[in-house]
TrEMBL record, chain A:
This is ABC-type glycerol-3-phosphate transport system substrate-binding protein. InterPro entries: Bact_solute-bd_prot1 (IPR050490), SBP (IPR006059). It holds the Pfam family SBP_bac_8. Gene3D superfamilies: Periplasmic binding protein-like II.
């Protein structure tokens, strides 16, 4: 009898406690994040750059030491989950104080829904140290909504040892470039790395070959003035298909570059693949594999297919955004101001080893410094990469169709028709919305 | 005047069970019923993730019918379900039969169960390397035994990529099916089997006419679990191909995720979720009802 009563009591008391406990923790979880209400504490800085965590921690600490408010990063390992997290909390107080994002159309969506704080005052103060192209990437209706978190140029990296052994020079004309590819192929070396792993990289050579043909055509295509089915674009795909069939590219299903298995160094370092056109953020991967920038690998701008296309280079830039609805918006604005300052950018370039977005802060390694010089001396036009330069619904269909083309480089027409079909829908929606 | 102590006790006794239920009801209500009802509502809107959207009637569902990617997705889901039934359930049963009569069976069943302890994502990463067309284990092995001409881009050529992933899923899903069948075999009543043996039934005949019907309750469970698991397969595919290349290896669950969280056509993604849930629910109910009806006969 005694044991029966105590069991009942235990269940009543225990059950009640568990119920109350679960409810309390559930309600707590529904409420505001505790870390954001700790006054002068570190700001919450979300991003999907999983490998950059220690650099963010380091710069956050330096920002605090410098008198600005510091930050503590929250890393997401999956970009898709990250985008969902930001979009679903963007208009709630749960949004992180600052976060990384993408420029162009992906950013416009957040601007249109009032998720981003206006940072024009920071650009007024620091803008002269950045290029106009960079500023444009973050400008909507004359106001800026982000400061550059990173900037990456998209040159063609090459294995210097392979070039030396094969007696090759960096190509300066399209004919030179084809001769280099032919020579490498003859030596049993795959000239160019290409991949569809991670989906997005299928646009790399597509954008590159259009820009090398006509930068205006690229701009027109990105902004809906040209069609994917236009003869000039069809010609670019025909050329690309021809180069694939000649064996100039690696099997895109075997090699992964920059994402996923990221096995590119296994091919590039021993010289099985000699070149790759890719974003500058590939460099840390190469360096981790033991390749020294400037000694083991270098970079050049792919020569123009049409000689009169001018000096152009694809770049990408992602903004550091301040949440308009963040609980500590003013602190975050101050932190973003420090990030964009000379001191902040120096700290970031020192920590990360990336290319510098600021003219008065030199890039960290000789390859990036060389690219900086090339851009400055040649007065290069910088063009935003495909991922950000055109509405994202088109990009999503585009990368899938281009991947199909890379695997089966046959008739480009059905590929381009499919992308144009989505482009028609998307541009009509943009028209209707504006 | 306060109620008499007896009445208070009775009232307390009546309400106590509900108090015990409360935490679970709250959890299920908040995390299951509310999202499910909300998903059905969202399926009739053009929500985008940043806007709640407006009511669009059956537009999302008519778009599904016309969407070639959805058709590929349905076809791949059917491949997955059939493949899993044949391989996981069929091989699971075969292994259980073999191992239950083997001396080393105890050790082997542990070995076969081992992959089931890994997460779907880990299995995906392992098999991603195995299927790499250049340096992968499978291609190297086939080259070694002189079958290089049969190698392909395992994860890039449809529908081989779906079959390759079904194979990887079988490697992981075989163990649990085998264990469940082993449990079923160990608990079979001895009398009917011995009676059948006395009557001269042996081997395949004994298995087909006696053992298999007696195993039916366990088979029903294994088939139902396999069906449901493979209708909603996601993690392995997301890790190995992300549904690609060019959406060729998507299943319904992957399409739902992609539309909802990659392209942020949340309303359209929800309509796929509704269709997937309907298919799984209807199939499960019909299958289990028919199986248990048959079980009662025996």
């Amino acid at each position: 009898m005694t044991s029966e009563i105590s069991r009942k009591k235990f269940l009543q008391v225990g059950g009640g406690a568990i119920a109350a406990g679960s409810l309390a923790s559930f309600l707590a979880a529904c409420g505001g994040g505790s870390s954001s209400s700790d006054g002068g504490g570190m700001l919450r800085f979300s991003n999907d750059k999983i490998n950059w965590e220690e650099w963010f921690v380091e710069t956050g600490r330096l920002a605090r030491e410098a008198g600005a408010v510091g930050w503590r990063p929250t890393q997401y390992s999956d970009t898709t989950t990250y985008q969902a997290a930001i979009k679903t909390t963007g208009n709630t107080p749960k949004v992180p104080d600052m976060f990384s994002w993408w420029s162009g159309w992906l950013m416009k969506e957040l601007v249109d829904t009032s998720m981003l704080a206006d940072v024009s005052s920071i650009w007024e103060r620091e803008g002269s140290a950045y290029s106009d192209g960079l500023k444009d990437a973050f400008t909507f209706d004359g106001k800026q909504y982000g400061v550059p978190l990173n900037v990456a140029y998209w040159p063609t990296f090459y294995n210097k040892r392979v070039f030396r052994e094969q007696g090759l020079e960096v190509p300066t004309t399209w004919d030179d470039f084809i001769a280099v590819c032919e020579r490498l192929k003859g030596a049993g070396i795959t000239p160019l790395g290409a991949t569809i792993e991670g989906r997005f990289p299928s646009f790399v050579y597509f954008q590159e070959f259009i820009v090398r043909t006509s930068p205006q055509l690229y701009r027109d295509l990105m902004e809906g003035r040209a069609k994917y089915t236009d003869p000039e674009i069809v010609d670019v795909l025909r050329l690309w298909g021809d180069l694939i069939r000649r064996g100039y590219f690696s099997d895109p299903a075997s090699v992964s570059i920059g994402t996923g298995a990221n096995n590119f160094p296994q091919y590039f370092k021993p010289g099985r693949i000699a070149m790759v056109t890719f974003g500058g953020w590939l460099e840390p991967t190469l360096m981790e594999a033991g390749m020294r920038p400037g000694e083991d690998f270098g970079a050049f701008v792919m020569p123009n297919i049409e000689a009169d296309a001018g000096n152009n280079l694809i770049y990408e830039t992602g903004p550091l955004c301040v949440a308009q609805n963040g609980q500590r918006r003013d602190d975050a604005l101050e932190a973003a101001g420090w990030w964009a300052s000379r001191e902040g950018q120096s700290a970031w370039i020192d920590a990360s080893g990336f290319a510098s977005a600021r003219a008065d802060v030199p890039s960290a390694n000789p390859v990036d410094q060389e690219i900086d010089r090339t851009i400055a001396d040649g007065r290069f036009q910088l063009l935003n990469r495909y991922w950000e330069a055109t509405p994202h619904e088109i990009v999503e269909v585009g990368v899938d169709q281009l991947a199909k083309f890379m695997l089966e480089p046959g008739d480009p027409k059905p590929i381009l028709d499919a992308i144009q079909k989505q482009a028609d829908t998307s541009w009509a929606a943009v028209e209707a919305g504006s | 005047m306060p109620p008499p102590a007896g009445a208070r006790r009775r009232a307390l006794r009546r309400w106590t069970p509900y108090l015990y239920l409360l935490p679970m009801v709250l959890l299920v209500g908040v995390f299951l019923i509310y999202p499910a009802v909300k998903t059905v509502w969202v399926a009739f809107t053009d929500a985008t993730g940043t806007s709640a959207g407006s009511f669009v009637g059956l537009d999302n569902f008519t778009r599904l019918v016309e969407d070639p990617a959805f058709r590929t997705s349905v076809r791949n889901t059917i491949y997955w379900v059939i493949g899993a039934l044949v391989l996981q359930v069929g091989l699971g049963l075969l292994l259980a039969l073999i191992l239950s009569n083997m001396r080393a069976g105890d050790w082997l069943k542990r070995l076969f169960y081992l992959p089931a302890t890994l997460s779907g994502a880990a299995v995906g990463v392992i098999w991603f390397y195995v299927f790499n067309p250049d340096q992968g284990l499978l291609t190297s092995f086939m080259g070694t035994i002189g079958l290089e001409s049969l190698t392909t881009r395992w994860l890039a050529d449809p529908p081989v990529n779906t079959f390759a992933m079904i194979f990887a899923a079988t490697w992981q899903g075989l163990g649990p099916a085998m264990i469940l069948f082993l449990v079923g075999l160990q608990n079979l009543p001895r009398e009917p089997i011995e009676a059948a043996r006395v009557d001269g039934a042996r081997g395949l005949r004994l298995f087909w006419h006696v053992t298999l019907p007696l195993l039916r309750p366990m088979s029903a469970v294994v088939v139902a679990i396999t069906l449901i698991n493979n209708f909603k397969v996601f993690d392995l595919i997301w890790v190995m191909t992300q549904g690609g290349p060019y959406r060729s290896s998507e299943t319904l669950a992957v399409s739902m995720y992609r539309e909802s969280f990659v392209t942020f056509s949340v309303g359209y993604g929800a309509s796929i979720a509704v269709v997937l849930t309907l298919i799984v629910t209807i199939l499960s109910v019909f299958y289990l009802r028919s199986m248990f009806r048959k079980v009662e006969v025996y």
